[in-house]
Amino acid sequence: MVLRQLDRLEGYRGEERDNFYDRKVRTVALADGSTVEVYVYLAGESSRCWFTDASDEIPGGDFVKAESR
Q1: Is-contact 35 27, C-beta < 8 A?
Q2: pLDDT tens track for 17-60
């Protein structure tokens, strides 16, 4: 139920569709060294035109890079 609501919020309509954001599974390392798989939303084809500088794109389709605090 929550995933469906997030998909609607992010404009995700399913694989191989024209999505605002695509839902992907990524592995994330936690502070204790363990890892978990999480869903992330990455800019889809229809929203990439909002980014004016192609050099901002990171391999894999990510446009924003997390920085440690």
Answers
A1: yes
A2: 788 888 999 999 999 999 999 999 888 777 766 665 555 555 55
Gap between the Cα atoms of 46 and 56, Å rounded: 17
Q: At 62, is the secondary structure helix, strand, or coil?
A: strand
Residue 50, CA distances (Å) to 32, 35, 43, 44 in order = 37, 32, 10, 11
AA identity, residue 14: G
For residue 55, what is the DSSP state?
G
Rounded to two decimals, the pTM is 0.60
Q: How is 17-53 classified by DSSP, letter by letter?
A: S--SEEEEEEEEE-TTS-EEEEEEEEE-TTTGGG---
> What is the distance between the alpha carbons of residues 63 and 44, in angstroms, rounded to a whole number?
11
